[in-house]
Amino acid sequence: MHILLINPPFSRFYELEQEYVPLSLLAVGSWLKCMDNSVKVTIKNFEIDRRRCTYKGYSERIFRYERYVDNVKSEIWDEVEEYIKKEKPDQIGITVKNAMYASAIKIIKIALRYDIPVIVGGLHPTYFPSHYDKFDNVKVHRGYFEDLPSGKYCLDSLPLPDYDMLVDTYKYRDSYGHIITSRGCPFKCKFCSTRLIGGRSVCYKSADYIIKEMSYIKSLFNNNVFTIWDDVFTLNKKRLFDFCTKYTIDAEWICESRANVLNEEMVKVMADSGCIEINVGIESAENDILSYIGKGEKREDYIRVAEIFRKYNMKWKAYVIIGFPEETIDDILETVSFVMEDLCPSKITLSIFTPYPGTELYEDCRKKGLIEDLSKDKEMLSLYSHQSGFNYFTPEISREDWKIWRGIISKKIDLYNEGIQENNRET
Predict the structure, then answer these.
(1) What band does 281 get if pLDDT is binned at 50, 70 and 90?
(2) Alpha carbon separation from 393 to 70, 115, 325, 371, 413 (Å, rounded)
(3) Phi and psi of 5, rounded to 5°?
(4) Please, are residues 23 and 178 in contact by the beta-carbon 8 Å criterion?
(5) Cβ(229)–Cβ(178) under 8 Å?
(6) pLDDT for 358-400, tens place per residue?
(7) Would you put residue 166 in left (φ > 0), alpha (ψ -120 to 50) or beta?
């Protein structure tokens, strides 16, 4: 049996480069082959298009997003259909985020034209399984983690990733160095959809298993950097110290964290072991907004951790979200000013607030009349993404003013990031 796993085209429609391995498909495919080594599994990433896709600044992404919503670029869909027709797999699996629903439906229709059964997985089918009921030969799979043994380090039973399944060749060696070492998040951010897949309890890969996996990847691709995509890699302090103490691989590493779980001792140990960047969600500078979104942190936490990063010359990225329902333009401008002038991160990542179905802020937006019930209006799903120009959920700001300020802030952050890069080149 040949199973073809597909990452649908999404950012590619507005020509944004997404040059990294689809980790969810890599994990699922490796697990499938481990369960039955007679199964042939291949992974096709339709986000790859080196003829057009490059890095785009936030001000440009927002205005290009409607190219995805239109979703009519025939050459992309011709490529998808030609590939499926050529490969003739026995089954197709598709990973589907909410905003990718339109692309997933296109692939489903192509597959069914060739009588190929489809399995869909990921956030969207987990929360909206009924959206696929109209297709006779499409099944929803909620995940493979349920088959794992229980326990803190249950992820150690996962097989190492099988990169032979990848159809595409990635142009950067470091594109292969992306890993996930835990599942779940105990925090209660009201805008985040992580709990819908991973839950509140956290299970981990042990430090020994992480190093084993990283050593394996290094032996294959000789990458210079690893990127660890856990929601909060530093959550388990004992595991973190165990990992840092044992880490001797000739490659630097980057991870995600939270300000309120970091202290100076941790940052020092991480820096000494080869960590070159820690990425932290700031979201807002206003304590009342942080309370409203359930962040569990305060402005003072960000000031404290920024000072620690400066002390150890640690690069760090600040994640910022604008457009929460209770924000005013003054709140947003204060956040941008605070991050740029007081925190001074190495880079700022900008997101436009998106009410993900299943989250508390999605329900709040529905109650406020800011969004339709997406369980009924499936076509609206494609409009909303954290880089979408269609997002408008700020009743404290008029729609016209929001568009103007959104453009100004996006450009301001682009200029900040460009200035940081220019300074790095000069030094």
Answers:
(1) very high
(2) 22, 41, 5, 8, 21
(3) -100, 130
(4) yes
(5) yes
(6) 899 999 999 999 998 877 777 788 889 998 999 999 999 999 9
(7) beta
| 367's tokens | 């109650």
The Cα–Cα gap between 212 and 210 comes to: 5
Q: Where are the beta strands (DSSP E) in 221-287?
A: 225-228, 252-257, 275-283
Q: Parallel, antiparallel, or unpaired: how do β-strands 203-204 and 182-183 relate? A: antiparallel
Whole-angstrom CA distances from 287 to 225, 302, 323, 368 are: 35, 11, 15, 22
Residue appearing with tokens 């210079």: 224
| Backbone angle region of 159, left / alpha / beta, with phi > 0 → left and psi within -120 to 50 → alpha | beta
State the chain's mean pLDDT as an integer.
92
**154 exposure class (CB count in 10 Å sphere: 0-12, 13-18, 19+):** middle
- The whole-angstrom separation of Cα 76 and Cα 328 is 40
Identify the three-state secondary structure at position 93: strand
What is the tens place of the pLDDT at every residue in 186-221? 999 999 988 777 677 899 999 999 999 999 999 999
> In this structure, what token pair is assigned to residue 398?
């008029």
- What would the pLDDT profile of 337-366 be if each residue is shown by its tens digit? 999 999 999 999 999 999 998 899 999 999
Q: Measure the CA–CA gap between 144 and 84, rounded to whole angstroms.
A: 25
Q: How far are the Cα atoms of 233, 282, 299, 347 from residue 343, in angstroms, in the given order?
A: 21, 10, 10, 11
Look at residue 19 and tell me whether its pLDDT is greater than 90. no
**What does the DSSP assignment read for 238-281?**
HHHHHHHHH---SSEEEEEE-GGG--HHHHHHHHHHTEEEEEEE
Q: Which pTM does this prediction carry?
A: 0.92
Question: Could you read off the pLDDT of 149-182 as tens digits, one per residue?
Answer: 556 778 998 999 999 999 999 988 999 999 999 9
Pairing of strands 203-204, 275-283: unpaired
User: Distances from the Cα of 135 to the Cαs of 38, 112, 228, in angstroms?
Assistant: 28, 9, 37
Give the pLDDT score at 62: 85
Whole-angstrom distance between the N-terminal and C-terminal Cα of the chain?
A: 54
Beta strands in 14-116 (DSSP E): 40-45, 91-95
| AA letter at 12 | R
In angstroms, rounded to a whole number, what is the distance separating the alpha carbons of residues 158 and 262? 28
Q: Is 314 helix (H, G, I), strand (E, B) or coil?
A: coil
